[in-house]
């Protein structure tokens, strides 16, 4: 059995980070599965470089942005589209 990997990429002070956390919580509850997620703070030195191409907040399911965006940020930035909705995240957890 494979485990679905959920990750939140954000930075402290991002106005949409808490909304993304709430969407993840809601999506996990809606899925009926017992899941946890990993958070990657873009300002933390231990965050791998591979996550630094994403704006804040980005929700990844099995390494793929739930919105379909490919990353590519040149520098730490806020996403213009804000936090993804819970229904979108839940649809990727299937």
Our measurement of the CA-to-CA distance between the termini, rounded to an integer number of angstroms, reads 14 Å
Radius of gyration: 12 Å
Helix content: 10-25%
Q: What structural class is derived from the secondary structure elements?
A: alpha+beta
What is the averaged pLDDT score?
91
- Beta-strand residue fraction: 15-25%
Indicate the low-confidence ranges by residue numbers: none
Question: What strand line-up does the widest sheet have?
Answer: 2-1-3-4
Globally, the shape reads globular
The number of distinct β-strands equals 4
Give the number of helices: 2
Helices and strands, in N-to-C order?
EHEEEH
Biggest beta sheet attributes:
4 strands, mixed
Architecture overview:
This protein has helices at residues 17-31, 86-93; strands at 6-10, 37-41, 58-61, 64-65. The protein is an alpha+beta fold. It has a four-stranded mixed sheet, with helices on one face. A hairpin with a 2-residue loop joins strand 3 and strand 4. The longest helix has 15 residues, at 17-31. The radius of gyration is 12 Å and the shape is globular. The two termini are 14 Å apart. The model has no long low-confidence stretch (mean pLDDT 91).
